[in-house]
């Protein structure tokens, strides 16, 4: 289990797992750590793009009216 799950309250919000992975990716990226840039600046440069897309898709599935009948995807 990744270290950011230890000694932490469980987040019951939707897409919580992807949110944590996305946050960890940004905060541990060389762009933030070595270059001292803000995470928002690193996002504009295209870092952690796959997790950003996954998080977006998860949040979008919450607003999708079809998912009201089918249920949310297994994120």
Automatic annotation (TrEMBL):
Record key words, sorted: Disulfide bond
Keyword Plastid part of the UniProt annotation: no
Protein family membership: Belongs to the PET191 family.
Any Pfam family the entry gives: Pet191_N
InterPro entries per the UniProt record, alphabetical: Cyt_c_oxidase_assmbl_Pet191 (IPR018793)
Designated name of the protein: Cytochrome c oxidase assembly factor 5
Listed GO CC annotations: mitochondrion
Annotated GO biological process: mitochondrial respiratory chain complex IV assembly
Coiled-coil stretches: none
Function noted in UniProt: Involved in an early step of the mitochondrial complex IV assembly process.
PANTHER family: CYTOCHROME C OXIDASE ASSEMBLY FACTOR 5
């Amino acid at each position: 289990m990744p270290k950011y799950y230890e000694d932490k309250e469980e987040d019951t919000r939707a897409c919580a797992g992807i949110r944590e992975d996305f946050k960890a990716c940004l905060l541990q990226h060389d762009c933030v750590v070595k270059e001292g840039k803000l995470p928002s600046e690193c996002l504009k440069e295209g870092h952690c793009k796959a997790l950003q897309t996954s998080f977006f898709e998860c949040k979008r599935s919450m607003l999708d009216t079809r998912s009201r009948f089918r249920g949310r995807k297994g994120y």
